[in-house]
Design a protein that fits this description.
The chain is of the alpha+beta class. It is 38% helix and 20% strand. It has helices spanning 18-50, 105-109, 119-131, 134-143, 150-163, 224-235, 269-282, 287-290, 294-302, and strands at 67-71, 76-81, 84-89, 92-95, 101-103, 175-180, 196-204, 210-219, 240-245, 260-265.
Length: 303
């Protein structure tokens, strides 16, 4: 169906400065989106009422056809989007069979009752929370006009994290990469002492993106067998796989399969530096004398 929308917005301005214009436009976006949603919802609701047959909402007793309007601009309900916090008018109808009244706004929007943060917003909060600290993520959101605290980001990470399914996709490429969380400087939950690292297996997709195939935490030279075991059963659908590693030979101790594996190694300068430092300190050489500068490691890698 075609929808015609008209929106009027007025404001006072003293000077046409770019800063003032951008600020006013930032205030306009939530108002514009709110009215945009209200008019679209009302247009669809009227369309459903005018047509015969079942409606996309139902009474608790099963009626989907016979309703009357009670209000088209009722109390406001809030939803949080990445464009700001919106207040949408609630539409209420009455069932002709049982006389029960109920709201249809959230059902038309596909949002569960009493849910303020919509799933799309939670996914973006979770992405920010995965790339930075929760406090920094909340500050970044506030810079774009979205008022959220660090616990909102934390809850979004927990909820979205539970929905992620790891594994090998048979319909994607046979190109895999193995990486670890060592030497990144990023703190990892559940790693409370030295000697543990996060191990990640990713699978390249046909569209150029990647998917997480496996994730685990264990000692530097262990844990690969437990990580690869559930994945190799699915990977048998490929004739062969290309496995890219950073040169850690302990990875192949955990791969026990008849599957043909093509190995490719990339050079990690950070790993060279830490390995030289670690190796020399193991030989009872002082860390100050054993460490190499970044320039010397880079020259060593290029040679």
């Amino acid at each position: 169906m075609r929808i015609e929308i008209s929106i009027s917005y007025g404001f006072d301005m003293d000077k046409p400065g770019i800063k003032r214009i951008i600020q006013e436009f930032g205030r306009l976006i939530p108002c514009l989106l709110t009215e945009f949603i209200n008019q679209i919802l009302l247009s669809f609701a009227i369309h459903y009422f005018n047509r015969e047959g079942e409606k996309p909402f139902a009474c608790s007793y099963g009626n989907r056809e016979r309703f009357t309007w009670k209000t088209q601009h009722g109390k406001l309900t809030q939803i949080l989007t990445m464009l700001g916090r919106l207040k949408i008018h609630q539409m209420q109808v009455e069932c002709k069979d049982c006389g029960r009244r109920f709201l249809i706004t959230r059902e038309l929007l596909g949002i569960e009752p009493r849910i303020i943060i919509i799933p799309e917003t939670k996914k973006r909060f979770a992405s920010m929370g995965a790339l930075s600290t929760f406090r920094v993520s909340a500050k970044i959101a506030c810079l774009f006009g979205i008022i959220a605290d660090k616990m909102t980001v934390w809850r979004s990470v927990q909820e979205i994290g539970k929905t992620i399914e790891l594994g090998v996709d048979e319909n994607e490429t046979s190109h895999f990469e193995v990486s670890t969380g060592r030497d990144t400087g990023i703190p990892i939950v559940d790693i409370k002492k030295r000697g543990l690292e996060m191990k990640v297996i990713i699978q390249h997709k046909k569209d150029g993106k990647v998917r997480s195939a496996g994730l685990g935490i264990d000692r530097y030279d262990k844990g690969w067998e437990k990580l690869f075991k559930p994945l190799l059963k699915t990977a048998l659908c490929f004739k062969s796989i290309l496995l890219v590693t950073d040169g850690d030979t302990s990875i192949f101790k955990g791969i026990k399969t008849k599957l043909k594996i093509l190995h490719q190694r990339f050079l990690c300068i950070c790993r060279i530096n830490s390995s030289i430092v670690y190796g020399k300190t193991e030989s009872n050489v002082k860390r100050a004398n054993g460490s190499m500068s970044w320039a010397r490691c880079s020259a060593f890698a290029r040679s």
